[in-house]
Design goal:
four-stranded antiparallel sheet; 5 domains
Amino acid sequence: MVIDQFEELITTCKQQEREQFLNFLAEVLEANAQKLHIIITLRSDFEPRFLDSALKPYWSGDRFPVRAMRSDELRQAIERPANEKMLDFDPPNLVDLLIDEVGQMPGSLSLLSFTLSELYTKCIERESRTLTEADYQELGGVAGSLTHRATQLYNKLDKAQQLTMQRVMLRMVTIEGGESARRRVPLSELIYINDAENTRVEEIRQRLDKARLIVGGQETGGEPYVEPAHDALVRGWNKLQEWKNEEQENLLLQQRLTPAANDWDRNNRPIGLLLPDGDRLNQLEKILKSTNNWLNQRETEFIKSSIKLAKERYQVNLSRQLAVQSELTRNQQANLLQRSVLLAVEAMKRLDDLGIRSLETDQALRHGLVLLPRPLLCINHEGIVNAIAFSPDSNSLATTSQNDYAVRVWKMVSGREVMRLNHEYELDKVIFSPDGKYIATAGLSTIAQIWEAATGKKIAQMTHEKYVEAIAFSPNGKYLATTSRSPLVQIWKLTTGKEVVYMLHNEGWVYSVTFSPDGKYLATASSDQTARLWEVSTGKELKCMPHNKSVKKITFSPDGKYLATLMSGDSRFVYLWEVATLDVVRLDHTFDVESIAYPC
């Protein structure tokens, strides 16, 4: 068995793969000592890397160094082809310079060939038949000829092509022991998501090939590849060294990513070979989203699949946690049954989005739903229900619907209608007084009316200049605050239906009114972009709370220390004001807020 270019175990393989292969060779040799002979060809500068390998017992005794060409042999290799083409050297000792430079250089023959080719090209450009020392120095000598050509090619490219060349060349570099070495790159690694990039890659590859900076090949049974023409390009080209230093972290990341993505693709892309969630995947996701995205198509698909799997696993784990939390909440705190069901619903939703069903989430939801209270009553109306209100003792429910022109009062136990308060207009406001004795109604009319809850007798009505916008009972049930579509707020005595005090905003409509729990103050919300606090006994304005837009809702906290306000047109924000100091806190929401209320 003959194994050529054994140094590629260093330049193209990972350490683990290299050690496995060397151990395999040692085992095969030991098992077949009389039948098998292996001949290895290896560049001498790589030999020290193998002296302590699994092949050490066979190395020193069977080593056969192939000596380097002598100076006279190198001279013949340089001069004879030139003589056949009728070329000469200026000065004649240029041949000596070439020989002196390549004498101790590993892998020098291919570089010497490239340098002579470059010198010959310059002859043709000058229409001369002389290879000159001036051209030789311009090329940077034998070592510099390759890198000189690479720099020339790079400088002729536009910005996009230069970036593409950088990405292609960096893929041909591997870092081993802190040093750079050339790497074979399968052509499939040079396929990208972007069609324009693929076009540039093909163009750059052809230019590099034409300039003899890279060479191509194909292993038996393998796919085509390209690689740098010589290690001197990888180690000696300043531009490539700059790129390597700038992209050191990405190169190390790529060195681990590329074989992992190739292995995943080669094995029909099983999820078991995807990257686990963690810092490395997070880092690759950032690269995927960045403008400096060097990932090829296969790596991109590999990372996207890994991210998708990581998110799915996160959702599955979160769903299980929610299901467990749902069960614990229901078993340990019976008063939190609704929260338990909501947790189970959320757990199931997260799996439904993935097209997955789970016995844990199904059971958590079923167990909760079984215990949820069922509707006690279903009260039907002919039109859309505009307003509802419970009596303070929860025994009665008042409702009004579209086109009904009436308020209906229902008994909660039976669901039977026990009273109907007829009006001459459509209603959209109905409230019980705090003591449950009265019902206040208003709607598409300038009139607000007060009714006895027990008898349905109307005891008072209050007339306004415009449609009534808001109504509110005082905590003691003796007064009613109303506002129409104007800056005016009025407080009326129930027993007489007479106005006792009024408050006046500067302009606009007052949308909402509310009494403080002790009944001493009234808070109002207006389209003039303010909320205000008034003294009920005098109608005097005490505080003004400015906003950026119209204020549509306002409510007191149960202890009367705070006010909550909600604006129109920017209703994702609720503002919480301390009444004494007017210190304010903004409560942000993801979606628009429709109503605000403090728990009792």
